Amino acid sequence: MQRINIMATLLATALATHNPAHAEDPCDTLVIPPGAGISGPSDVTALNFLLANSQMNEAVAGMLFTGLINMDKTDQIDYAHSIASKIEDFDNGTRYRVTMHPWLWSDGKPVTSDDVLFTWETIEKLGDNYVAAGEGGIPDLVANVKALNSEQFEVTLKSPANPLWFELNGLGQLTPLPRHAWGNFTADQLYENQSDPKFFSVVDGPFRIENFVMGRSISFVPNPRYPLEQTPFKRMVFKFVNSDGAELQGIAAGELDLANLPHEAFKAGNSVANSHLVPMAPPFGYGYIGLNFKNPKVAFFNDLAVRQAIQDSIDEKTMIAALWHGYGVEVYGPVPPVPPTFLSPEAKAGKFPIGYDPAKAIALLNQAGYVPGPDGIRAKNGVRLEFTLIVPSGTSTSLMMAQMMQPGLRSSGILMHIQQEDFNQMWASLIRHLSTWQAYTLVWSTSPYPSGETIFNTGGAFNFTGYSDPEMDRLIADSASKPGLEALYKYQDYASEHLPYIFLPDTVNTMLVRNGIGGPDRLITPAGGYNPQLLTLNRKACHAAHAFHAR
Amino acid sequence: MNSQTAPATIRGPSANLGRYFRNRTLVTGIALALFVLLPSFLGGLIYGRDPYELHLGQQLLAPSGEFPLGTDSLGRDVLALVFDGGRATLIVALPAAALAFVVGLLYGLASAIGPAWLDRVLMRTLDTFLALPSLVVLIFFASMITLTNTTLIMLIGFISWASLARLVRNEAIAQRGRDFVLAAEQLGGGRWYVARVHLIRVMAPILAVNGTFLIGDSIFALSALSFLGLGVQPPQASWGSLLDSALDIIALDPWWLLLGPGVMIFAALLASSLIGQGLNARFGARS
Amino acid sequence: MLRTLFTRGSASFLSIALLITMVFIMAHLPPGGPAFSILGVKATPASVAAINSRLGLSIPLWQQYLIWWGHLLTGNLGNSYLLNRPVAQILGSYFVNTIAFYTISILVSVAASIGLGLVQGVYYGRWPARVIDFYQLAFYALPGFLVGTVLIMFFSVRLGWLPASGIVDVRDISPGIGSFAAHLVLPVTTVALLTTASLSRYFGEAVHEELGKEYVRTAAAKGVSFSAILFKHVLRNALRPLITILGLSFPYIFTGGVTVETVFDYPGLGWLMWRSALERDYPVVIAIVLIIGVLTVLGNFLADVVNGLLDPRASYE
Prior knowledge:
The complex is a heterotrimer of chains A (551), B (287) and C (317). Chain A is of the alpha+beta class. Chain A contains 17 helices and 23 strands. Chain A has helices spanning 2-17, 55-64, 113-126, 163-170, 179-182, 187-192, 244-253, 266-269, 304-312, 316-323, 345-348, 358-367, 396-411, 423-431, 470-481, 486-498, 539-549, and strands at residues 29-32, 84-90, 95-100, 142-149, 152-157, 207-213, 217-222, 235-239, 258-261, 275-279, 285-291, 328-329, 371-372, 378-380, 383-384, 386-392, 415-421, 439-445, 501-504, 506-507, 510-514, 517-518, 536-537. In chain A, the strands form seven sheets. Chain A has a five-stranded mixed β-sheet. A four-stranded mixed β-sheet of chain A has the order 1-8-7-6, with no helix packed on it. In chain A, helix 9 (304-312) runs antiparallel to helix 12 (358-367) and helix 15 runs antiparallel to helix 16. Chain A starts with a helix and ends with a helix. Chain B is mainly α and 287 residues long. Chain B has a single domain (23-283), classed as MetI-like fold (Orthogonal Bundle). With 317 residues, chain C is an all-alpha fold. In chain C, 75% of the residues lie in helices and 0% in strands. In chain C, helix 10 (226-263) runs antiparallel to helix 12 (282-309). The interface between B and C is large, with 52 and 60 residues.
């Protein structure tokens, strides 16, 4: 009897003290793939925005460090969400005084102008390793940066600049970094630590890093010291996925809360249970074809008539309808029309779009002396209008777009071959300014102030085509130095006329969002701002959606 | 996934010399091989559809009268893709197998009939080479080179020869001591001449059997690489890449995307295995 | 025994040394620099030059080779191009995941192979053996990535019984054993199906051969029960070649494992190698090739040792 009693007691004690696994509410954690809303699936590999070499890295860095200047949906400065509260310019755009909001680092210390100075000094120290070197005049145009008091600093330039251009493209790079945490590190050490989460323990943005499993996931928790909107989630996880299809798989299986819907799965996306489709606002950018002006095999690219004929042979409207189910924006110039903040009056009036005009294309080519051969392909002086377009592999959309262009071009007498190449290899041959390629297609994200430096000016850092036109150089310089928008408008119109790129539609991402998650339209701003803290949670709907998956 | 080197024991009916058709294994193997070869090289021509034409608005359709194997996510005819993919796979895998065969044969012969120190060096290197899983090495190199049909043939050819080399070397050494070989050498035949004419002739059955297995290995290697994105590059379809695309949208249950390439790969590998075993039975058992 | 160990051990060490040299040569064959992999979209000629000097790619090759050895011996596997972190740090959890995955798969495969092999050997020529024959033949021709994909389609997508990918649900803050187990079922099944197909064939042959031997007839004549013969003698003798085959199969387990890991998005060494190969992150790829090579050499060595322990003379009692 006694033995049984002891057993019984032991059993009872065991049962009494046994904790059932604490039922975590799955709705407390938001799981999304990085790039949701911005781009296709991509990894996060680094957290330091000064060294961020990809869109996703920049976005994540922006979640940790609030920008000095953040843009809103209409691509204008959003002072309510920026560290800067006021910006004044003096001396014809040579001197800029920035006043900062009171702000705290996550360890309680205040964010001061000294932190901005630290950022500036680090940019200088990094030299060529700084990823944005050359954009917006940083660092070459800056004479000095000095602190006036703990909440104000002044930037003086070497020559007058267009305040709009400098504030949006240049000043915005001076996001404060914590001197008290990083002041003692060399540039090399910063470089080596760029993906170590422990290094990033002091932040001032809406999130702190909880965990970073390289190549698999990165998880964030809210930063309680962030003064603006706090996220309703206790935890947010970026789960890296490898392909568009994997995002779809994630939503269908209940493992992801939102995901990009790949365009080809659009129909199927409509039928994924417990989720709804949300088209995102168009990113501020456009697709384009870069033509190699320095390759003698395709010297005809230098002929404006040929470029215009090519542009006229491309039916953007049908492309958008067929490939993106209507979610896309036609672009015919270097300034995307959505949001229309920087669009020139001529563009707004409809002078450009040139649009799909095959008759005009043929007329242009006839006038320029390109005669159709027996197979319909035009030639002049023995040189056929034939070229190879390099398309990055990894996204089917570029390929489909290229394939859609082929028939239109052929009707105009231009033969375009398609060759897919791994993106890194493609980029390598572009960077090296090799002359082996003839044409390539990519997507360009315009800077917040959509000037053409780095792409269209002679010798620009991202000018791979070799485009060189003194008038264009003058207009670009003017848009950066003369105040107001006039110069920008002139540059726009000139570029739309002279086509340094062939412009292609700006594609829009559609997202699949699980029921219960709200506010996906606030996830991104056209200028590339990434604000997952603005996503909302409807707990009841979320539970219902989860219950479906817990079969 | 093992590559078969030393043929094990007899399978199927006992060897009946000259009676090919009673060798069910061999016949089935050849039938399967035709099932794979004919559609891959002739199917595209007969069927006539462009595999890369995008039928917009008809994406991801299940098989129907118009599209016997349905369409993929870009709206392409899957049956046409399977044909073209087969062609693309085989025009790389078959030459690669041939290359591996030649390299392995030469390496093994050199090891067997050369000086002893060469044998030791070559075999030691071979062992080290064999220590690495072939796919791992393939992935390694594939990440470094530009991937074209030619480079793929060379890559797969230069990786797969190892097991054949060892087999050839062992066999050649075993055969080297036999009377007729010694006689030929006495009569003044140089080492390489002896090797070419006599050793190879004597080893022919083993070479045939293992050569066939080599084809299967080659097809497997190429399909695996293509599946991983490191083989035949898009937009050219191949069996491996078709499977990869299917896996990508597996959440949509696209069984018709799996069926074509899956059956083809299965048939090809099975054919290689059966023909090899059938030949093995035909030529008699060796332990 | 000790002498064999020593000779085999030094042979293995030689193999490893040769392996390391081969990998070094392979790693430095491709022309061009890794700068573009590291810098991605932000590569400019100036930053490329900065990277190249930082990585020390300009010193003579033989010096790089010595430095390579020095690094390896101190456990320095280089820095990932993509993450700028030491490769050795990155590999840790992936290594553990792969070891766990393969160990479980091998255990399951061996158990299944022994079972199937016994049936195949005992029922040689009769229908149970024919069925197993067919299974072995079929799965020789079914690559891992095909089998895995089909399993996912049936068990994850259509039936929803098991997860299609990953190692745990990312949403779980502290995943329990159940989560790990659920995510391992399909991958292990895939690898086991394939490995068993080849292992069981060798085992079945061995069993069949053993059963035909003199001592079995003698024991039966003496009145020893069939199961005693089977499990005490035949099994032990037939196991010996199995161990050798197992050791030799290590490379193939890794081969199969790589594709299975990618199909199931399982974060093991094979998966990491694949991703790194796609992203051209060479230090990681090279490190994994080395590790796998060393593991296989060690695996063979281990199989030899175990074989030596199961000395044939001990089984003839």
